[in-house]
């Protein structure tokens, strides 16, 4: 018996009498009517600026945000250990709880489903435009004044 009600997906065995190994995942149960959560990968260089409770903007790749908008959520959990990602290097998984399971347009609600690709933008603070423009110059000056 499953601990939650939902739909069975990613069934591993499709034949009667099929053989499975110990600790093998047989299926995934996607809960009904629960708010979705996003698992976001945050690079090692950025994880120091992320805290539980921070606001997050979620853009769903299936629905261009310029037309359909975006979702909002909060950082719920931050993994304490990094994982090696072949493309990004060391990353930390961050769990984001969403405030809604759908995107709203003028005429209807667009439901989301588990497994959709998203981009998570975590607001870590405010900077002025001049700060962005002067940042490369400041880094160059700071680095040039150090001896090796």
From TrEMBL:
GO terms for cellular component: plasma membrane. Keywords: Cell inner membrane, Cell membrane, Membrane, Transmembrane, Transmembrane helix, Transport. Its main location: membrane. It is found in: Cell inner membrane. Gene3D superfamilies: 2.40.30.170. The keyword Cell cycle does not apply. The keyword Hydrolase does not apply. It is a single-pass membrane protein. Residues 36-125 form the AprE-like beta-barrel domain. PROSITE patterns: HLYD_FAMILY (PS00543). GO terms for biological process: protein secretion. Coiled coil: none annotated. Belongs to the membrane fusion protein (MFP) (TC 8.A.1) family. This is Membrane fusion protein (MFP) family protein. It comes from Vibrio parahaemolyticus.
